């Protein structure tokens, strides 16, 4: 722009200097070629005028360009400021998100089992307890002694009788099976509430699991949902069992996956051994045209084998044996001539590697349980470790600790309420899971017998919290604090926690029914307990409360 002004000034000065009026007239006469000079001056003037107009136009364009550049610079500065602000908020949001994610992972790994040992945490819970008065210690003690304590001796006698008969039945089963073709049956083990001494509801039912293995030269290759393969959410807690030869890897030889030419043979497997007839795998209780063990076929084989075994030894006993429930293939019932009966479950299982985790062929169904994906999917049971954990913790608790009493009372109250209002999504296994979490979270001295009322209240509040959040995590899966003495497989400790209440998210009708039943149980608690409690003088009750 200054250059343009300078050029204009030069042109103006040149025009003024070259103007005819600045030249003196000689003798007052005009030269002869004056007309020619005037014409040239006019042409020169016109040329300068055009050049001036052009320069003015260029100056205007330069000014417009300068203004546009300044405007663009301002816009760039504003955009930079906005971008800096946006980047700042984005970074802040990412930091907050990462902090929340770290807190969530820490909560799942360790704190998800910390069930509120702090009184402040428990104080914010228990909204359903407003207006609900729990029975005092004297009433609870009388109820436990009158209604529950007497059942322990009955359970012991029944366990002894059922175990003896089951051992005899399995021995007969081995004798009727073909050792070269049929499954090999091992000794049975007792699991569940009858063997953990907290069963209170009649009829008493013993749960026995029977491990079995394939005949030689076959073996089971087990795969769980947390073994690295991707399983959908509805298959968590399940696994598959592949029947393989002992000299074969679980993934199979490459000759099974590659089309070899007619003139090529596998050096490891002959043509005869590499092709397995479908009938052979079906004889090994596999699903049709697969190598995966079929739970339905296993139960059919087991029922037939048990029937043959009973026919062999029935003459030794003065009672009848039959399968009692159609929807529970392993449910057996002993019927005496007097009309009395004893029920027990005998269920075949497959051991997971060298642990005491088992794939169970049939699991008791409940309204909350989701449909089994297929008959080749086996549910995993940790019942043996649950029994061992309770036994291990019991050694560290005070004498006559109240942990089993709490579970027995809660199980009785829930069962009684369900008999009045119908079944709900809660099961005794959920109640036991709540107790396992509290046993790990609370110190040993908190389970003294005189703290029965407080611990029962803790269980109810923790259960209410889980129902509200629709989250009750499996005690063993994803729990990194399992005592090392149990020898629990590390693969399950490192797995993602398994939410036992996940079906509540999908089944709102069952969830609503379960919550209503739980709240109704809280309201009816005093009435249910007083119904089975002898009268206690008021003075005695007040004296205990003062203590």
UniProtKB/TrEMBL annotation:
Which ranges of the sequence are coiled-coil?
A: 38-79
Keyword Coiled coil found: yes
Q: Which GO terms describe its molecular function?
A: protein kinase inhibitor activity
Q: Where is the signal peptide?
A: 1-20
Superkingdom, according to UniProt?
Eukaryota
> Which UniProt keywords are given for this protein, alphabetically ordered?
Cell membrane, Coiled coil, Glycoprotein, Membrane, Nucleus, Signal, Transmembrane, Transmembrane helix
Q: What is its main location?
A: membrane
| Membrane topology, as annotated | Single-pass type I membrane protein
Q: What does this protein do?
A: Enhances Ca(2+)-mediated inhibition of inositol 1,4,5-triphosphate receptor (ITPR) Ca(2+) release.
Q: Which family does it belong to?
A: Belongs to the ITPRIP family.
Name of this protein: Inositol 1,4,5-trisphosphate receptor-interacting protein
> Which organism encodes this protein?
Cisticola juncidis
């Amino acid at each position: 722009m200054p250059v343009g002004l300078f050029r204009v000034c030069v042109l103006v000065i040149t025009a003024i200097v070259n103007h005819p009026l600045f030249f003196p007239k000689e003798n007052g006469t005009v030269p002869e070629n004056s007309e020619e000079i005037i014409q040239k001056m006019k042409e020169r003037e016109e040329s300068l005028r055009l050049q001036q107009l052009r320069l003015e136009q260029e100056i205007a364009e330069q000014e417009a360009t300068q203004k546009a550049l300044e405007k663009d610079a301002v816009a760039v500065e504003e955009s930079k400021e906005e971008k800096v602000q946006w980047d700042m908020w984005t970074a802040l949001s990412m930091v907050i998100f990462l902090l929340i994610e770290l807190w969530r992972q820490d909560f799942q790994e360790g704190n998800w089992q910390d069930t509120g040992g702090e009184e402040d945490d428990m104080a914010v819970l228990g909204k359903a307890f407003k207006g609900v008065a729990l029975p005092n210690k004297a009433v609870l003690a009388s109820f436990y002694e009158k209604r529950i304590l007497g059942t322990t001796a009955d359970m012991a006698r029944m366990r002894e009788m059922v175990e003896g008969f089951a051992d005899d039945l399995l021995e007969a089963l081995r004798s009727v099976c073909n050792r070269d073709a049929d499954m090999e049956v091992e000794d049975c083990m007792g699991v569940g509430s009858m063997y953990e001494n907290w069963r209170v509801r009649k009829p008493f039912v013993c749960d026995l699991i029977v491990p079995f293995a394939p005949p030689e030269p076959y073996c089971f290759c087990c795969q769980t949902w947390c073994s690295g393969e991707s399983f959908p959410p509805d298959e968590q807690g399940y696994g598959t069992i592949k029947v393989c030869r002992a000299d074969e890897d679980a993934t199979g030889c490459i000759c099974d996956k590659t089309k070899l030419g007619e003139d090529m043979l596998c050096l490891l497997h002959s043509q005869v051994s590499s092709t397995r007839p479908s009938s052979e795998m079906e004889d090994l209780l596999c699903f049709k045209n697969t190598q995966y063990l079929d739970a339905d076929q296993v139960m059919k084989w087991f029922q037939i084998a048990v029937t043959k075994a009973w026919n062999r030894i029935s003459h030794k006993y003065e009672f009848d044996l039959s399968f009692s429930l159609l929807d529970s293939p392993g449910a057996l019932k002993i019927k005496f001539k007097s009309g009395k009966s004893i029920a027990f479950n005998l269920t075949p299982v497959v051991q997971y590697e060298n642990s005491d985790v088992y794939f169970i062929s049939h699991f008791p169904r409940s309204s909350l349980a989701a449909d089994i994906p297929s008959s080749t999917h086996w549910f995993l049971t940790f019942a043996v470790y649950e029994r061992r954990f309770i036994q291990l913790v019991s050694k560290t608790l005070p004498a006559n600790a109240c942990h089993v009493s709490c579970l027995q009372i809660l199980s009785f109250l829930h069962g009684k309420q369900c008999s009045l209002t119908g079944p709900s999504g809660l099961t005794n296994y959920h109640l036991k899971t709540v107790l396992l979490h509290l046993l790990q979270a609370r110190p040993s001295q908190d389970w003294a017998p005189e703290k029965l009322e407080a611990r029962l209240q803790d269980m109810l509040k923790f259960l209410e919290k889980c129902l509200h959040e629709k989250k009750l995590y499996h005690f063993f899966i994803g729990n990194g604090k399992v005592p090392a003495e149990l020898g629990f497989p590390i693969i399950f400790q490192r797995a993602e926690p398994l939410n036992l209440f996940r079906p509540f998210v999908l089944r709102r009708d069952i969830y609503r029914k379960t919550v209503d039943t739980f709240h109704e149980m809280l309201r009816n608690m005093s009435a249910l307990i007083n119904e089975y409690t002898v009268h206690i003088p008021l003075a005695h009750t007040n004296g205990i409360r003062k203590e």
